[in-house]
Amino acid sequence: MLSKFFKSKLLIYAPLNGKIIPIEEVPDPVFNQKMMGNGVAIIPFGGKVHSPIEGTVVLLSDTKHAIGLRSKNGTEILIHIGLETVSLRGSGFTVLVTKGESVSVGQPLVEVDWDYLREHGKSIVTPIVITNSTERVIQYEDSKEGIVGETLLMTAFPK
User: Fold this and answer.
1) What local confidence, expressed as pLDDT, does residue 2 receive?
2) Most CB within 10 Å of its CB: which of 84, 87, 146, 157?
């Protein structure tokens, strides 16, 4: 039983350098009311968005503002770059991966023009959400600042 727990435990790292905030503080009800799932958010200092897990790219939004990943243990993660950025129709984003591609922790996923997002989007706050969180046990870390690929945000494993 214990070995099953350790095999299926997923470590989720910071996909961005920035200030980590609770999902409840995201200024958008879709996220702060956990309609998309539970998680955290980062107020980015800049830089590319990187993979927080080892997994597979399962979603690339047409507007390039969101990317979905699935881990080997079935945990599904959505990284939503900024708020109300769908209206930018892909401007400010350069996707560096393809759907179906395997990714590793720290691998660059999306290049972002943060100045463009600040000027044209609602907010650069970036939620990192476990979209199947109702099927997972999630343990949050108490980190206040994220460093790509180093800072552990949370762990998740099937219930």
Assistant:
1) 44
2) 146
